[in-house]
Amino acid sequence: KLQIHYVESGSSSKPLMLFLHGIPDFWYTWRHQIKAFSEDYWTVAIDLPGCGQSDEPRYDITYTLNNLASLVCGLIDGLGKKDCILVGHGSGALVGWHLLNQYPQRVSKYIMMSLPSMGVLQDLHQQGAIPLKVQAEALFLCLPRLATLFARSGDFQLVDRMFAQFAKPADIEAYKYTFSQPGALERFLKAYRENFSDFLVEEYDFKERKPSQTPGLFLIGDEDRWIPLEDCCSLLIDHYQPLEVRYVPRTGRFLHQEDPKTVNRLMRMFLNEKLDQPKVSMEVPPMTKIIQKDVCENCHGKSHSTAEQHENCSKHCDGEAHRHFLSKARIPICS
């Protein structure tokens, strides 16, 4: 049997919130969300097969996303639950979308971050919408010897470049320790190579067969340059309804670590929402780079000539109607 490592917090009598990390990553990526949601949910963050402390998978020769989705369903069974709130980031989101397609009854609600489904990625790739730089990166990660040497160079300076802007030194050391374990990087890269680059293969067909009816939230950083944001979200909404899309300002690929406060707030708003009928909400990222701060309803949409005016306006509201403008509309707040 394949041993899957996971970290849990909260009471098992509460609804299960299951977290799936991306690659290269491990359960620790969800530390902010585990802390924020363990009072109301049973939070369980796993190490995907081949990552962290989980066993390396025995790969099938075809369509291995099916195997990963089945494995997650088995884990839900093993935890004694019929379904879960599924949260995925990056490659973990790819597994999550696939699980939703194959086993919709196992997901009560879902929150995916950074990457759309494999079918949408394949559509974007076939349309020539995915930047060549991104395709080159995906192909580079499929070259295990070169990718491993690059990742190990300079005492794992790649980790510093990925996380230094938003992670604490202790967090960076946790990543370096995990990646430096014998065979760890090789397992990460093999997991990626076997499971998450198949959208580049024309012979594979990942098209969603039927629209989802499970309520969902898709979060993506407005500075994430991995995929074309608006094209990606339009295709997602075609297949997944009811779906809400939110752009998280000033964040890139690791939005849940870069701005956990905003991400957690958007997650909680979605989880507390009652969807009696399909609801589609697609927000559009800002057209220009602007000063991005929380503002009150009284000044929402008004232009401020200076950052100081904006700062004063945002400080002198009653707090009750306070919201982030990017969660609602495409409106420049400051000049």
UniProtKB/TrEMBL annotation:
Q: What Gene3D superfamilies does the database record attribute to this sequence?
A: alpha/beta hydrolase
- Look up the coiled coil feature and give its residue ranges: none
Please indicate if the UniProt record lists Cytoplasm as a keyword. Answer: no
Pfam families the UniProt entry points to: Abhydrolase_1 (PF00561)
Q: Which GO terms describe its molecular function?
A: epoxide hydrolase activity
Question: Which key words are in the record?
Answer: Hydrolase
List the InterPro entries. AB_hydrolase_1 (IPR000073), AB_hydrolase_fold (IPR029058), Epox_hydrolase-like (IPR000639)
Highest taxon of source: Eukaryota
> Which residue intervals define the domain AB hydrolase-1 in the entry?
15-146
PANTHER family membership:
EPOXIDE HYDROLASE (PTHR43329)
UniProt family annotation: Belongs to the AB hydrolase superfamily. Epoxide hydrolase family.
Name recorded for this polypeptide: Putative epoxide hydrolase 4
Source species of the chain: Anopheles braziliensis
